[in-house]
Amino acid sequence: MATLSPHLKQATPVVAERGEGVHLFDDAGGRWLDFTAGIGVTSTGHCHPKVVAAAQEQVGRLIHGQYTTIMHRPLQQLTERLGEVLPEHLDSLFFSNSGSEAAEAAVRLARQATGKPNIIAFHGGFHGRTMGAASLTTSGTKIRAGFSPLMGGVVVAPFPDADHYGWDQETTTDFALKELDRLFATVTSPDDTAAMIIEPVLGEGGYMPANTRFLQGLRERADRHGVLLILDEVQTGWGRTGAFWGKDHFGVEADIMMTAKGLASGFPLSGIAATSEIMARAWPGSQGGTYGANAVACAAALATLDVIEEEGLVANAAGRGARLREGLEAVAAETAAISDVRGLGLMQGNQFRDADGEPDGATAAAVQQEAARRGLLLLTCGPWGQVVRFIPALVVDDDAVDEALGIWREAVDAVVG
Ligand code: PMP
Questions:
Q1: What residues does CATH 3.40.640.10 cover in the chain?
Q2: pLDDT tens for each residue of 3-57
Q3: Does any ligand 1 atom lie closer than 6 A to the CB of residue 16?
Q4: pLDDT tens across 239-280, in order?
Q5: Looking at ligand 1, which atom is closest to the CA of residue 270?
Q6: Is 233 near ligand 1, meaning CB less than 6 Å away?
Q7: I need a surface site. Which of 76, 124, 167, 229 has the fewest CB within 10 A?
């Protein structure tokens, strides 16, 4: 009998048979409140009727039309529709199947477009598990261990994580920008640097938002040095943070933007958007793939966009996110083991620290498991696994938020109360 590889340790006990909205069900009568949303993928909730109908309809029409051979209607329509939600200057698109592939595509494009080799990534960033994407990733050694030699030309700069450094945000931002300038002066000169890549909110690295002054500082240096700025919106896009894009909180614009996850409500679809000037410098045939822009995934993405607009899901993420944040902060205020709550919108994390103030992954994991036993599915993140994160589908309502908060309080009390 075959089994899954032992390295695929499951974070939750669920064997899902069916999903509906923010709930998962198994065939033994179990019901779970899913605040993982498949790591933020099921943006419109499990099996939203409109997404299901669009996908079913498309399956009967055309499943696959390899897009460098045959253009198809859903892709034409999606390209047009994305023009309405993307920043106007990012008017040229390339599609792939996963966030990791989007990272690969962004880096290869940056190198081709600039003719320069090096990429600056930021500490705690996560960009995927393929070799190039893993080389940009510093959210934890488990992503890189045993893979060396990784892709060359990656330089890691500090992320302004004030909590990690134990400084205030201004001091931390000054430090991070100064270190970046020092890297440009001593390690990778602008003439050798193709791009900087950053998440507006660290995802796997611990749900830590960047800040406006830092991101504007990156933009200013990118312009001054002729270096491209890549924003990885794989986790922060599609309303997750209470704005359509994570970058909207900080008023910063990318030269290349990556998207995946929430884009097609669970169908594999990802992509990068760049200015046509940059994209025109990709060599013909150098980027592509058999499955990119699958017709069913594109139809699901179109329906996802409709649902986000019709149901006001970006505003819902902001409103329900504020309620969730308030409830989590109330629990944290009464719990010495939770040092802080961080994140934006429906991307909220609770950091656990031990009595010595050290990141405490063991307690975070114990609380996550306790919550699962009580019917609430959560995930951990952070370099030490010390952050328990809440990422419900954007359709979540007040009742589900309150139910999750109730279980959270019980689980926290049971483990550290
Ligand atoms: N970038 C970010 C910010 C992510 O959160 C992830 C996935 N967690 C990826 C890239 C990689 O996406 P995928 O797992 O689809 O390859």
A1: 51-310
A2: 899 888 888 888 999 999 999 999 999 999 999 998 889 899 999 999 999 999 9
A3: no
A4: 999 999 999 999 999 999 999 999 999 999 999 999 999 999
A5: 15
A6: no
A7: 76
Query: The pTM is what?
Result: 0.98
User: 99 C-alpha vs ligand 1 centroid, how far in Å?
Assistant: 4
Q: At what angle do helices 398-416 and 313-333 cross, to 10 degrees?
A: 30
CATH class entry, domain 51-310: alpha beta
| 130 close to ligand 1 (CB < 6 Angstrom) | no
CATH 3.90.1150.10 placement within the chain: 18-34+312-416
> Which atom of ligand 1 lies closest to the CA of 258?
1
Give the chain's end-to-end CA distance (angstroms, integer): 43
Q: Is the CB of 104 under 6 A from ligand 1?
A: no
Count of CB atoms within 10 A of residue 347's CB?
25
Residue range 18-34+312-416, CATH number: 3.90.1150.10
User: Sheet containing 154-157: which strands, arranged edge to edge?
Assistant: 92-96, 270-274, 256-259, 228-232, 193-198, 118-122, 154-157
